[in-house]
Specification:
Blueprint: E1 2-6, H1 13-21, E2 24-26, H2 34-41, E3 44-49, H3 57-61, E4 68-71, H4 81-86, E5 90-93, H5 99-115, H6 117-125, E6 143-147, H7 151-162, E7 166-170, H8 179-184, E8 187-188, H9 191-197, E9 200-203, H10 217-221, E10 228-231, H11 240-248, E11 254-257, E12 276-278, H12 287-305
Parallel strand pairs: 1-2, 1-3, 3-4, 4-5, 6-7, 6-9, 7-8, 9-10, 10-11, 11-12
Helix pairs in contact: 5-7
The protein binds D-malate.
Length: 325
């Protein structure tokens, strides 16, 4: 029996420390080959993944010794939680550790859209000095609509307040007297009303059946023609073809996407639109966030392998001891 299988790129001092205590096999490309992953996982007591490994019921069925799946990140859409629960496998994630980094990227994209920073940079590098082509807009006094007001949405709102923005929120799971909404002085609205009123819409929704394609042509048509749309959450919430059409029809002024419908994405018309900023799912990828994420996930994996409860378990913190484990 082996200890820990890592199926994506995760490195650093904490992983090295984990290797001192446990038998760790790190195969950063393994997530790309589900059959190879299935063939390997059967021997291990722990699996550490990011967002690219599909932890399906089939994979878990091939892992009779598995006690814990450590998800180094926030989104749990790549893990079959019901299958993990049914198999008494602990699932641990790191919801707080990268939230600041994601919020900071959302603010960065907001400023980049409002001031056309990437386009102005490209243009200047090509030898132009077209100052008057880059008259931007201020964030000050504008309205930010946060769609999904969890941790990341809240932190984005706090930072927007520092720019003098007013905050609106849509979150079907929050009540209007929620304390964090109070801190944001945010009005809790229905999504369509928020889209009508916001100058910047920043999306922080998880990928679930109810959020799939929530941003479609009907939703984009409700936005102000001067508004910007930002998505740093999950690509499945946006119908990219609808966003492309809406941008071409000038139903909104610009968009920034850090996450895509498929990753890596197929080449599409979005890339040729001047008012679009595209980044390769990097919101959580900062030195600080990755250190925190890796530390938290290694800590929980070690704890479970040592017979202690996980600190960041999504459901039960202890695996049930089974005869075959
Ligand atoms: C997350 O869910 O934590 C982010 O999308 C980053 C990641 O998965 O690597």
């Amino acid at each position: 029996m082996r200890d820990i299988l890592i199926s994506e790129h995760i490195s650093g001092a904490t992983i090295n420390a984990l290797m001192q205590r446990f038998d760790v096999v790190s195969l950063p490309e393994l997530w790309k080959d589900q059959a190879a992953l299935r063939a390997q996982v059967g021997d291990f007591r722990a699996l550490i993944v990011r967002n690219q490994t599909s932890v399906t019921a089939e994979l878990l069925a091939a892992a009779p010794k598995l006690l814990i799946v450590g998800r180094a990140g926030v989104g749990l859409d790549n893990i079959d939680l019901q299958a993990a629960k049914a198999a008494d496998i602990v699932v641990s994630s790191t919801p707080d550790q990268n939230a600041i980094s994601v919020a900071e990227l959302a603010i960065g994209l907001m400023l980049s859209l409002a001031r056309s920073i990437p386009a102005a940079d490209q243009d200047t590098r090509s030898g132009n000095w077209a100052r008057h082509q880059y008259v931007g807009t201020e964030l000050y006094g504008k309205t930010l609509g946060i769609v999904g007001a969890g941790r990341i949405g809240y932190l984005t709102g706090r930072r927007a307040q520092a720019f003098g923005m007013k905050v609106l929120a849509y979150d079907p799971y929050l009540s209007p007297d929620n304390v964090l909404l109070g801190e944001l002085q945010a009005e809790l609205l229905e999504l369509d009303e928020l889209l009508k009123r916001a100058d910047v819409v920043s999306c922080h929704l998880p990928a679930t059946p109810e959020t799939t394609g929530i941003f479609d042509s009907a939703r984009f048509s409700r936005m102000k023609p001067t508004a910007f749309f930002i998505n740093t959450s999950r690509g499945s919430v946006v119908r990219e073809a609808d966003l492309t059409a809406a941008l071409k029809a000038k139903q909104l002024a610009g968009a920034a996407l850090d996450v895509r419908e498929t990753e890596p994405p197929e080449r599409s018309e979005l890339e040729s639109l001047p008012n679009v900023i595209l980044t390769p799912h990097v919101a959580a990828l900062t030195v600080e966030a990755q250190e925190r994420v890796t530390r938290a996930i290694c800590d929980d994996v070690s704890r479970v392998l040592d017979g202690k409860p996980a600190r960041n378990a999504v459901g039960a913190a202890f695996p049930k001891v089974r005869a075959n484990k």
